[in-house]
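Reading a protein record of the kind used here takes only a little practice. The record below shows the convention in full:
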Amino acid sequence: MDRFFHALGDGTRREMISMLARNGALSANDLRKPFNVAQPTISKHLKVLEKAGLVRREISGRMHNFHLETAPLEEAENWISRHRTFWQGTLQQLEDFVGASDVEENGE
């Protein structure tokens, strides 16, 4: 999961994931088009996404096509969901505490 969240920590990589989600398989060149960066930079981003398990590379001759892998996204979503309940409860308790403190300070 560390590699997953690291991969998502960059806006270019998040946009590449969005492009793959919208369009299906895309070549490295297709993924580079919206960005004003050199091909080696895109290659580095793609390697990070591959290591995180977010994309799968398919090679056909000289063409490298990339496919979105959804399993890591589902795993992260499950992790976030499990912790969301805790944080929502904790934040509600904090809000209640702050509200009670305000009442005590105002003498109400």
Notes: Strands lie at 26-27, 55-60, 63-68.
